[in-house]
């Protein structure tokens, strides 16, 4: 399976990359980690005339905490992010453990996965769960797009063809927040059939002060479990309450079926995973308090 | 059209002229005649093509040769002594950790890098490490034992 | 003769090169002037080929030639067929069978997605693929047959016009009066089981490299095949060249599993391209092609019924079987009859009635894959046995214990022939001992106690599943071997068997070295080269150790005799007083008399003074006759945990208690079992080739066809029992396939066992989470509906 022929230009800076995109428009694709793009090239499912390789744009390889958020530059590899996340953001570390395998994570980038927008992948859901946003730079300049406004359909975002995502930002949870992450995949490292990520923190009285819940593998985009968040926030935390919230959140989902799981499966298991991740978050939460 | 790339493979420099679409795997095999790296799927799942890029395992079928300049690439030939077998390879022979040998170079390199970071792995950690390399012959049982044996051997004889 | 290597876990001689990355697989071989081929393959499951335009493709820079059927017509004989019905079988079973050889390149009709319609030869694979996209083909789509049951009914679209229907094969056989036995049985259970389409999927795809030497009119082809002599015969027929002008070599091959023991279009098309282009031509199959174009397997429906006494004694089994053959019936009687012959397995069942039909469909052709019909039939039998156990409220282990044959019952004859037309007689083994050993080793009683406690106290659902098989292995009729010594006493062993990872270079060397009395590293094994031995069959059906091993044993014995005679003359001793060990010949009791074999061999050469004592050819060729199979058996036990919330199945432990007779190399035997089990687990939980209603293959990459990784498998525990075979001089039996036979059944039984309290019945594989959750949900709905009915006044 050899790719169709393409032209190649390495970009040494963000500006060069943006200029190349502006010049070639729809005919160009950004090559960063390549773990999603190159298989599509090899299968001839993608046939860009021009590849703009940003791996030389070292100014994009950074990860820094600032203002209660982590800013991940476009070239920060998933493996490197996981090493940081192990002590600073365990929810991300756990999510990344499910992204492919070591060799994939050594090249794949956090921003790449966020921008690729596979609805069964973990990082877009994490972006949603952690009130994240991406920074996109185009010929018109730079803009920030909140996660809620980013994802449109499978592999489709609100990014324009001439925009380069330079950064992804994730909120850092409060230290006392508990987290949960679970997915069902046919094999370890595969795309999820369905998955959930949850955060929960409590006030001094033990009520849920904040809740975040995001699903993946449940339709064309990752989805926030808004109904669960609303149901639980401000209430004392009980198992029955969590169960009801999980059911409410899943009821709002419109998953699709495919070769590996039916829509019904995804709907039913979304409830189970929402429950489990919220309860895990509660358990971790109590320990921190 | 082709581009010039200077590749550093197993410590040796090569100046090649290749089409952008040529994968690193095909470049190693067809241009540099290093056929120890094998191609199993060309979509990044099977791991047979695994090489080390600056010491870290990557899928060489998902990298373009033109991207590989400026990095140190290690293939299975690069962890093999002139004569005989390296301790890791010896452990695989001792424990029957290979049958047809097609997935083996990829597994050796993934393991080589892994044991540097995890010198005392548990069986579960070994299996998670191996999960990115498919083997159809062994059922992984003896591969796990080979990795354990290699870890023990390295603990007895730490590299200087 | 010394037997110090036989039975030893000698490290493998092939390992160093493979570990060093110095193996030589087909794609590693480069020849000067080599061109590369790519194929244009049908995107339709069933269509007429109306017209083709290749000019634009042929014009592309770097393209050497584009070939269509018309260009290659003179070589386009139908591909060879396998599975003719042996006379012994035809005499006992009435089989209606239709076979038609596939054309290597489609002419008027394509019958599965992926069938070849044109071939492009270019300077590189990438350029060939670019050009292949430019070949324009006008197709007239025809209705596709995708369901094996519906496809066999009258009125279905016909795939091979001359046949009139899609039933490629049909037969009925058995013994006893099944209707009467069923009627008399106190308990009968009936169910329909579906074994999915799944495949060998070796890590190395197929590859063919061909070189035509114009100087001496010889063709050499390197082919990752398991059957070099079959490939050679096909080329002899198609090319009209004598056999010695066609050399087929299988170099290092990255896994076979039966997938590479098939007759394929590319085996012919690439040599033809090399002849037509007068340049070497290489084709390396890519993975997407492999999914479409390399043989598929399994895929059966069993409508099976069992009758028993209330105490659990099995009285009768009736099975109606459908086999989905794919587009061509290339393998004839093999898969369907294997299925039938292995149905009853280790169980004593006095009455049997089976009806089998093989139906062609518009899918990739089906061919034998590790187990070759046995996994499917064992699935049906072990499942219905568990269903019977549940009906009888009996422990499935106890039900089997009651009905399994034991050593005292052997030899045991079933009143149907084996596939080779000979009598079907279990020659050795103790199936009840296998069962006891497996249950004992896994701690069955303790697992049962824990299972109940775990469910009661923690809501954790664990299950235990058992499956047992008896396997006719090492089908003959022969695999010859030549054993030849060179001047220094080193031995070359040449055989038609070839290795795709089974370690022949080691195990066969062990046999030869022991017999000859020379060190192991004095023996070089050459397999998979038609120039090394003129007749061969190949490596499949777990046959090589028995067939080639026996020939090697006999041939080495003949060479040993000659060495002894020559040594006797040289040492001036009686042949009975000559000892040969470690490459030295000596007189018994006089170690100082030892001479290296090199001297013995040299002494056989004529001198000016006299002729040699024996002719100096220390060489023998034996085609050991193996009329029929020898029976391996095993019991597998799977221990699983089911997550009732997600339907995910985790395999906690897997136990194999098996008998394969004597072991040449125990380590290699274990490796074969492990590999087979892993593929079986894939079949039980993960792997499926899925087609849609138009015959489009939906599982086209490793993203969708799910091969188990190290995380889906536990350590595989094995217990060896040893009941030597009386049917060959080494006492060995085949073990290449056995591991793959029972896992889908054992896992299905374990999952059903884990969910037994819900009244779940497992009827299909693989057991992905969606399927399992669906079973749980259906069981809950049944319970609720029953409760609802009960609540009505």
General description of the model:
The complex is a heterotrimer of chains A (289), B (160) and C (793). Chain A is 37% helix and 25% strand. Chain A is an alpha+beta fold and 289 residues long. Chain A starts with 6 loop residues before the first strand and ends with a helix. Chain B has helices at 24-31, 87-94, 104-117, 123-130, 141-156, and strands at 3-9, 12-18, 50-53, 56-59, 72-74. In chain B, strands 2-1-5-3-4 form a five-stranded mixed beta sheet, with helices on both faces. By secondary structure, chain C is an alpha+beta fold. In chain C, the strands form seven sheets. A seven-stranded mixed beta sheet of chain C has the order 3-6-1-13-10-11-12. In chain C, strand 23 (578-581) and strand 24 (584-587) form a beta hairpin. The model of chain C has no long low-confidence stretch (mean pLDDT 96).
Short précis:
The complex is a heterotrimer of chains A (289), B (160) and C (793). With 289 residues, chain A is α+β, with helices and mostly antiparallel strands. Chain A has 11 helices and 14 strands.
The best one-word shape of chain B is globular
- Give the overall form of chain C: globular
State the separation between the terminal residues of chain C, measured CA to CA: 84 Å
Helix content percent band of chain B: 25-40%
Overall pLDDT of chain C: 96
How many β-strand stretches of chain C?
Answer: 29
- Overall average pLDDT of chain B: 97
**Largest sheet entry of chain B:** 5 strands, mixed
How are the strands ordered across the major sheet of chain B? 2-1-5-3-4
Number of helices of chain B: 5
Number of strands of chain B: 5
Question: Biggest sheet of chain C, in brief?
Answer: 7 strands, mixed
Task: Provide keyphrases for this structure.
heterotrimer; B: 160 residues; alpha+beta; five-stranded mixed sheet; 5 strands; C: 793 residues; seven-stranded mixed sheet; six-stranded mixed sheet; 29 strands; 25% strand
Would you spell out the secondary-structure blueprint of this structure?
The complex is a heterotrimer of chains A (289), B (160) and C (793).
Chain A: E1 7-10, H1 14-24, E2 28-31, H2 37-42, E3 50-53, E4 63-66, E5 69-73, H3 78-88, H4 90-97, H5 102-107, H6 110-116, H7 122-129, E6 133-138, E7 141-146, H8 147-150, E8 151-153, E9 156-157, E10 164-171, E11 178-184, E12 194-202, E13 208-216, E14 223-224, H9 226-232, H10 239-251, H11 263-288
Parallel strand pairs in A: 1-3, 2-3
Antiparallel strand pairs in A: 4-5, 5-10, 6-7, 6-10, 8-9, 11-12, 12-13, 13-14
Helix pairs in contact in A: 3-4, 6-7, 9-10, 10-11
Chain B: E1 3-9, E2 12-18, H1 24-31, E3 50-53, E4 56-59, E5 72-74, H2 87-94, H3 104-117, H4 123-130, H5 141-156
Parallel strand pairs in B: 1-5
Antiparallel strand pairs in B: 1-2, 3-4, 3-5
Helix pairs in contact in B: 2-5, 4-5
Chain C: H1 15-19, E1 35-41, E2 47-53, H2 55-59, E3 63-67, H3 69-72, H4 87-92, E4 95-97, E5 109-110, E6 116-122, H5 125-132, E7 136-141, H6 148-151, E8 167-175, H7 178-184, E9 187-197, E10 207-213, E11 218-223, H8 228-239, E12 246-249, H9 265-277, E13 281-284, H10 287-293, E14 298-308, E15 314-326, H11 334-341, E16 351-360, H12 374-391, H13 396-403, E17 412-417, E18 423-426, H14 431-442, H15 444-458, E19 461-473, E20 481-485, E21 491-495, H16 504-516, E22 523-527, H17 544-571, E23 578-581, E24 584-587, E25 590-596, H18 597-603, E26 619-622, E27 630-642, E28 649-659, H19 666-685, E29 716-721, H20 743-754, H21 769-791
Parallel strand pairs in C: 1-13, 11-12, 15-16, 21-22, 28-29
Antiparallel strand pairs in C: 1-6, 2-5, 2-7, 3-6, 4-8, 8-16, 9-14, 10-11, 10-13, 14-15, 17-18, 19-27, 20-21, 20-26, 23-24, 24-25, 27-28
